[in-house]
Design brief:
- By secondary structure, the chain is α/β, with parallel strands linked by helices.
- It folds into 3 domains: 85 residues, 2-Layer Sandwich (Phosphorylase Kinase, domain 1); 242 residues, Aminoglycoside phosphotransferase (APH), C-terminal lobe (Aminoglycoside 3'-phosphotransferase, Chain: A, domain 2), CATH 3.90.1200; 131 residues, no CATH class.
- Helix content is 47%, strand content 14%.
- The strands form 4 sheets. A 5-stranded antiparallel beta sheet has the order 1-2-3-5-4, sandwiched between helices.
- The longest helix is centred in the middle third of the chain and has 29 residues.
C-alpha cells in the first residue's frame, strides 16, 4: 500500500514506540489515504497524499486555524517530500454518524440541534475571524471561488452527471445559462474564507467538542456557500423547517461579528444552494457512475429532493438550466437509486431488460454487477410487422415466444443459473442480486425474458423482485 512504509517510519520516529496496528480508514471522495497507527501509548492518524500543493495548503490552513483557536486536528509531524503527515486521532464519531444513529429513536433531538448551532458558530469564525489575516494565495487549487472555480463545478456537473445519467441538453444554451448563474453568484460579497466542504461528515465529535476536518479545498468566497453545504447536506436529510431555523440562527449569530443585510444575503442564498447541489451531483456522478462507488449513487435521491425544493426559488432567468434540472428530477433512470427496501432483510433481485444500443444497467448496490444474458439468439418478433409496435409485455408477443423452442431453452437454462445464486444468496443472507436481459432494441425479447424470470422467482421464493424495463420507461 502506497505510503505505508514511510508512514510507519515517521510514526515510530515521532513516538519512539513500535507500531502495534496499522488500519486503513474508509475512503472518501478524494485520492488522499488515511490510516490509524497505534502503539502502546499512541493512536495517531497518518495521511498520504501525492498532491504536494494540496498538502501545502492543508498544512498552512491547519496552522492558521490553530492560531485562531479553531478546533482543527493537531498536526504532529510532516514529511511533505514523501507526501505524508501525522494528525491527532479524533475518533470515528462524526455529526453525520451521530445523526444517523439517533435518527430513529430521537430524531433531530435537542442535542443534535445544539451541535448544529455550535457548528454554525464555528463556521462564522472560519469565515469572518480567520479571514482577516489569511493569505489566500496559499489556497488550492484556486485562491478564490471565482468564475474559473464556478466553471469547473458546472462542467463537473455537466460531464460527470448529466452525460452519464443520459440527460439531454442544448450545450450552447446551457453554457449561456452557466455564465448568467456565475455572474449572479459573484455579485454577492465574497471576501471570506469559504470552507468548501462544510458538511456533517467533516465535523468530528470528541469529548462533546466539535472538531473540523477536510478544509484543504477552501478559498476566498461567499459565506452563503458553506451554510448551503451544511444545511443541504444530502444524506443528513434535514427537515426544511429545521433548515429555516438554522439559517435564522446563523444570520443572527453572524450579525454579532459583522453587519449583515439579511435581505441581500437571502437574495444570493438559494443560487448558492443550487451551485452546491450541482457540485454534489457532479461528485456523485464521478465517484458513482465513473468510479463505481455505489454509496455515492445512493445520495442522489436526497439531492433530487433538495433540488425540487430549491428550483422554484431560483429567480434568475436560466431557462435551459431549469429545463435540464426538471428532466433530472423526473428521470426514471435516477429513480432506481431510491428503489431500496431497507426495512426488509429479504434478498432483493433487480431484474432489468435493456438494449445493447445502450449501456448495460449499472449496479448501484456496490456488488459490482450480476448476470447479463444476451437474448439476441432468440427469434426476434420485432422483425414481424404485427409485433413491431408491441413489446414483450403484450400477450401476442408472449404467445409467439412461448411457441419458440429456442426461447424456452434459453429461459430454462438462464433460470437454472439464476436459481443457483438465489438459493446461495438467501442462505448467506446476502441482500442484492442483479439480473440483466439484453436484446437489440430492448423492447421484445429482453422484456419477455425479464417478465418471465420475475414471475418465476415470485412464485418459487420469498424474495423482493424489482423489475425495470429501461427502454420502456
Amino acid at each position: 500500500m502506497k505510503g505505508q512504509k514511510d508512514l510507519i517510519e515517521l510514526f515510530e520516529s515521532y513516538t519512539g514506540e513500535k507500531l502495534i496496528s496499522f488500519t486503513p480508514l474508509p475512503e472518501s471522495g478524494s485520492a488522499r489515504k488515511y490510516f490509524r497507527l497505534v502503539s502502546a501509548g499512541y493512536s495517531i492518524i497518518g495521511a498520504y497524499n501525492p498532491d504536494k500543493r494540496e498538502n501545502n495548503s492543508f498544512i498552512y490552513l491547519t496552522r492558521h486555524f490553530s492560531k485562531h483557536k479553531l478546533n482543527v486536528p493537531l498536526l504532529h509531524k510532516t514529511d511533505l517530500k514523501k507526501g505524508i503527515y501525522l494528525l491527532q486521532d479524533l475518533g470515528d464519531t462524526t455529526l453525520f454518524s451521530l445523526l444517523n444513529k439517533n435518527r430513529d429513536s430521537s430524531g433531530f433531538s435537542n442535542e443534535i440541534i445544539d451541535y448544529y448551532h455550535r457548528a454554525l458558530e464555528a463556521l462564522i469564525k472560519f469565515q469572518v475571524t480567520s479571514s482577516k489575516d489569511l493569505k489566500f494565495i496559499n489556497c488550492y487549487p484556486r485562491p478564490e471561488f471565482d468564475h474559473q472555480s464556478i466553471k469547473w463545478d458546472l462542467n463537473y456537473f455537466k460531464y460527470y452527471f448529466l452525460k452519464l445519467a443520459d440527460i439531454t441538453f442544448d450545450e450552447q444554451k446551457l453554457e449561456n445559462d452557466f455564465s448568467l448563474l456565475s455572474n449572479h453568484l459573484l455579485e454577492a460579497d465574497h471576501k471570506y474564507f469559504m470552507y468548501r466542504d462544510f458538511n456533517s461528515r467533516n465535523i468530528m465529535i470528541k469529548d462533546n467538542e466539535l472538531y473540523f476536518i477536510d478544509y484543504q479545498g477552501g478559498r476566498k468566497g461567499a459565506p452563503q456557500y458553506d451554510v448551503a453545504s451544511l444545511l443541504y447536506d444530502s444524506k443528513a436529510d434535514l427537515p426544511q423547517s429545521l433548515r429555516d431555523e438554522l439559517l435564522s440562527y446563523y444570520l443572527k449569530s453572524i450579525s454579532i461579528h459583522k453587519k449583515v443585510d439579511q435581505r441581500n444575503f437571502k437574495k444570493y442564498y438559494y443560487p448558492y444552494v443550487l451551485i452546491r447541489l450541482l457540485q454534489m451531483f457532479g461528485a456523485y456522478g464521478y465517484r458513482g457512475y465513473f468510479e463505481g462507488k455505489a454509496h455515492f449513487l445512493k445520495s442522489i435521491p436526497y439531492a433530487i429532493r433538495n433540488l425540487e425544493y430549491v428550483l422554484p426559488k431560483i429567480k434568475i432567468k436560466v431557462p435551459e438550466l431549469k429545463t435540464v434540472l426538471e428532466k433530472l428530477i423526473s428521470s426514471e433512470q435516477l429513480k432506481q437509486f431510491n428503489d431500496t427496501d431497507t426495512s426488509s432483510n429479504k434478498l432483493t433481485i433487480r431484474i432489468n431488460s435493456f438494449s445493447y444500443r445502450d449501456k448495460i444497467p449499472f449496479d448501484f448496490t456496490g456488488n459490482g454487477g450480476g448476470f447479463v444474458f444476451d437474448c439476441r439468439a432468440i427469434p426476434n418478433p420485432g422483425r414481424i410487422d404485427e409485433y413491431k409496435h408491441l413489446t414483450g409485455k403484450d400477450k401476442p408477443v408472449q404467445d409467439f415466444l412461448d411457441a419458440q423452442s429456442e426461447a424456452q431453452r434459453f429461459l430454462k437454462e438462464s433460470f437454472d443459473i439464476v436459481e443457483q445464486s438465489v438459493v446461495n444468496y438467501a442462505e448467506n443472507k446476502w441482500t442484492d442480486l442483479m439480473v440483466n436481459f439484453g436484446c437489440t432494441g430492448g423492447q421484445h425479447r429482453s422484456v419477455y425474458c425479464a417478465e418471465k424470470l420475475a414471475e418465476h422467482l415470485k412464485s418459487k421464493h420469498d424474495v423482493v423482485v424489482r423489475l425495470t424495463h429501461t427502454r420502456l420507461a
